[in-house]
Records
---
Amino acid sequence: MTRRVMTECAMTGRGAMAGRGAELGRRMRAYAVVLAGLALLLGALALPGTAYADLQHPRQNFLRGSVSGLFLHWGERTAPHHTSCSGWEKDVTTGGWSPDYWVKEAGKLHAQYLVLASFHSRLGYARPWPSKIPGSCHTQRDFLGELITAAKAKGLKVILYMTDDPQWHNDGGHEWLDSDGYSRYKGRNVDLTTRDGFGEFSYDNFFEVMDRYPELGGFWIDNDNDYWLDHHLYEQIYRLRPQYTLSNNNEDTPVMDMISNEQKTGMSPSYDYPQATYTAAPRLTEADFKLPSSGAWWYDGSDPAVDRKLTLGRLITNAGSSIKALMAETAQVNGRFPAKQEAFNNSPTAIWTGSGSPCAEPQVAAISMAVSRPASGTTVRTVSPPSAPPTPTATTSMSSPRPRHPSSAFATTDTGWPT
């Protein structure tokens, strides 16, 4: 009896151990599946071509501490149009161009940075520096270097606009891109009128600029080119010039520091630009819009009206929402702005500095009251830049190869040419 009981107990024990062993095996297989999945995910994130960005980084401090910038579309096709690069440069110099003028006008607006858009698809792809890379207009005088130096002396930064787009290579019936010259430089045939060929040409220019101008603030990208993405351009910029910032136009690209939102309309009230932005803080956001009420982003020979109420409303509502306001003024060949734009730069002194008479427009005064919330009866006349955030102890990363933002409910009404 005792022996039978012992045998049954032994058999029961072996069964229990077998059951526990099977359960352990199932758990181990499940863990293995989970670990394999994690390995695949981490491997995918490490694949070449995947873009990483710091949501917050010390290089962004000057942008986070900024309220506004001055957008300068100025190049070979500034009116009157030039088809000779040397002729354009001569007229710029003999006309009295000085970087101090742009810096002074930016100072009147209390802007903290300037974006120079000369290497633009509608302005002849002009490069206002003595480039050693053939392919499009480049100057002998270093206009870009002079502007960087003048801006730095006043505590401002210069950001360089770069286009991805060769489609306007023969705009106006003139060929602006020199594929033969660039092909000789590269030692093989490269067609600059294709996106790959232009991508390679502009890619080379990024590196030339980085080598020449360590004091540049960064690049303002008017959208991606696959050649740049395939060759990891942005990651190389951060590695070679870690103080540079990157901004993209109308596309929330995680690898870049800031998204800009171009010429949005359809809001009610019309000055409330923040309604048209969709990216939440702490991502850096910018509103880019034209000061003149009509015409091109560059000087086309006209001096359109300036809507002062609308513009001041945009500047104030953007400042109140921590959105950078990048306002475009249309510099002439000699660099000076048309009379109505100069008049605007001179007129809002009472709004920005607190001197002079109170704001004459009740609508704008009401906006600025709502932003600053002063004591009852106080007239608001200042918009103070926010202080830069403390250096983050850790950064948050986002990754995506080339994301696209969802459709906005508000329209981008201008593509750059006169309407």
Note: The first strand starts at residue 52 and ends at 54.
---
Amino acid sequence: MAAAGNHAAQNMQRLADLITQRRASLGWSKEKAADEAGISYTTYTRVEEAQNVQAQSLVKIESALGIAPGAGRAVLRGDMSLKLADGGELLDGSKITPIQPEWLEEEVQRAVTDAAIGTIPEATGEKIQELQAKVIETLRRRGVLPESGE
């Protein structure tokens, strides 16, 4: 009996990890995920803490996060991955490391500098800085980087 309970707890933790991973991949806070699912923050948090929630709450979370219908229940029954509505899947044990926007901006600037020096050796420092600023502005406009001060 303890073994069955242990498997249930492991499956619940796997689901919690995969739901957390999916939310992080969307760049959402727990608050946003709860709002998008139309459930309370407390209920949403219970899922990420591997606690029981009503089946209807799990269905709402699946829909909001772009998870295939019934995929959460399948993980609770022992599936090792979480199927996504777009046909993809999240695998147990894989990790997403959130990229910090300020780190990404610095890396983009370095990459632009390296590329400019490597392809346009006559480019002045001022022109390289203009190019960096234009690339950062474009990435912000596309939503890849947050606006300054966010």
Note: The first helix runs from residue 2 to 26.
